């Protein structure tokens, strides 16, 4: 499993960046980089809660995505999301062999603020096959987050 790290400086207070990153409308906007058909979540961001990260499959149009759990939420400093499985055609899969090979992967967000500039750091565990794709997607997604938060 690969570990990827991304960061960006945003000219906005940490609380605003946090709310922009996790707000329903703004989340859909900045995560559109990952799924042009539309990314959204179901659930809430509280520790221990189940989250579904969803969007239409580009080929079939059927809903797919990730089954995850909010492991840590220290607003507005740190968020750790544990990925537990996938959703294919609306059906959750947390037990297949293909899921077991990467289940337990984490996606961590750290935000620090100095002089009104918030540094967002993203650290993710990713299977090797998906690594290149996410290396290409994360920088434009963070740029989009920056543009929204700086408005």
Question: What report would you give on this structure?
Answer:
The chain is α+β, with helices and mostly antiparallel strands. It contains 4 helices and 8 strands; from the N terminus they run βααβββββαββα. Strands 1, 2, 3, 4, 5, 6, 7 and 8 form an 8-stranded antiparallel β-sheet that branches. The longest helix is centred in the C-terminal third of the chain and has 22 residues, at 128-149. It is globular. The N and C termini lie far apart (36 Å). 19% of the residues are buried.
Radius of gyration: 15 Å
Outline the biggest β-sheet.
Answer: 8 strands, antiparallel
Low-confidence stretches: none
SSE topology string:
EHHEEEEEHEEH
From the spread of the alpha carbons, the general shape counts as: globular
- Proportion of residues in helical segments: 25-40%
Number of E-state strands: 8
Tally of separate helices:
4
Strand content: 35-45%
Q: Would you tell me the overall average pLDDT?
A: 94
User: What is the terminal separation in angstroms?
Assistant: 36 Å
Q: Structural class, please? A: alpha+beta
Task: Write a short abstract of this structure.
Helices cover 28% and strands 44% of the residues. It contains four helices and eight strands.
